[in-house]
Design brief:
The protein is built from six helices and eleven strands. Helix content is 33%, strand content 28%. The strands form two sheets. A seven-stranded mixed β-sheet has the order 3-4-2-1-5-6-7. A hairpin with a 3-residue loop joins strand 9 and strand 10. Among the domains are: 52 residues; 95 residues, Ribosomal protein S6/Translation elongation factor EF1B (Alpha-Beta Plaits). The protein is an alpha+beta fold and 296 residues long. This is Type II secretory pathway component PulM. It comes from Rhodocyclus tenuis (Rhodospirillum tenue). It holds the Pfam family T2SSM_b. InterPro entries: T2SSM_b.
């Protein structure tokens, strides 16, 4: 038997055109929708599913970690509690001036400015300096080491020539103190000392005193009226605060901050202004004025 003749092979493109012509436009629309859906899947759906999986993994990891405690407020309270109290200002300034004197620096006159910032106060201290570099550096290192609440904000130095000594300039320090003062301060005692009471005793008259027939000597000259002794304080600087102008005084290597109306031993502070202070020596009610000059 003879084999039937083979059918001619139709090209693929012709077959597709035949199928499309037979199916009509609905097949074309379905094919287009299928192609669009496939493109959307790979362009948007698959990346979105991958991101969702990563987010779920991060959420599961975060849930397994221990809770994080916000310590910002606690740290701020700890820092504030570590600051010295307002009533330690005089002691801190005394340490600064004593350390300067130990290194041979003169800081007798300084300018002070107080800035209230919430629960603490910034005390800005401007000190003119004139010294060699080595003692100046040693002094700054010492005061910063002994006063943790003290910061060196500015140090400006100059000299007239390259070989000239000493250096001249200005140091700007800032002291941070808690605004609330510590309680339990004890005031100065106003009771007289026992030695003062003993010195005021009057001797008893002598019953058998020796007598002389010589004419009595002329009377002694009249005793001059008592006067107040020189002021035992030295001006060390001014400080303007919300309750008024105050001044720093040095007495026996001790720095004291006073205001109008304060009492210092036998002295009352009657008045303070930018250029002078009036003291009243209480035993004699005598006024004494300290002149220190005003701002330029």
């Amino acid at each position: 038997m003879s084999r039937p003749p083979a059918r001619p092979r139709v090209p693929l493109a012709a077959q597709l055109r035949y199928l499309l012509r037979r199916a009509g436009w609905p097949a074309l629309a379905g094919l287009a929708l299928f192609a669009g859906a496939l493109a959307m899947h790979y362009a948007y759906v698959e990346p979105a599913e991958q991101q969702i999986g990563e987010l779920r993994a991060k959420i599961a990891k975060a849930r397994s970690l221990p809770p994080v405690v916000n310590t910002t407020a606690t740290d701020a309270d700890s820092v504030l509690a570590a600051l010295p109290a307002r009533d330690t200002l005089e002691h801190a300034l005394g340490v600064i001036h004593q350390a300067a004197a130990a290194d041979g620096l003169s800081t007798a006159v300084a300018e002070y400015r107080a800035r209230q910032e919430g629960e603490f106060t910034r005390y800005e201290i401007a000190l003119p300096v004139k010294a060699a570099w080595t003692p100046l550096r040693h002094w700054l290192a010492a005061v910063v080491d002994t006063q943790p609440a003290l910061a060196v904000d500015e140090l400006s130095l100059h000299r007239d020539n390259a070989e000239g000594e000493p250096l001249a300039g200005r140091v700007q320090l800032t002291l941070y103190l808690r605004s609330a003062a510590t309680s339990g301060q004890s005031g100065e005692s106003t009771l007289p000392e026992r030695s003062e009471l003993a010195a005021s005793a009057v001797d008893a008259p002598q019953l058998f005193a020796a007598r002389s027939w010589q004419p009595p000597p002329p009377p002694p000259p009249p005793i001059p009226a008592p006067t107040a002794p020189p002021l035992p304080f030295k001006f060390a600087g001014r400080l303007m605060e919300e309750d008024g102008l105050k001044i720093f005084l040095n007495q026996s290597n001790k720095t004291i901050l006073v205001k109008q109306g304060d009492h210092l031993g036998n002295y009352d502070i009657e008045r303070i202004d930018k250029s002078s202070a009036v003291f009243v020596y209480r035993p004699l009610q005598e006024k004494q004025t300290m002149i220190f000059g005003g701002d330029d």
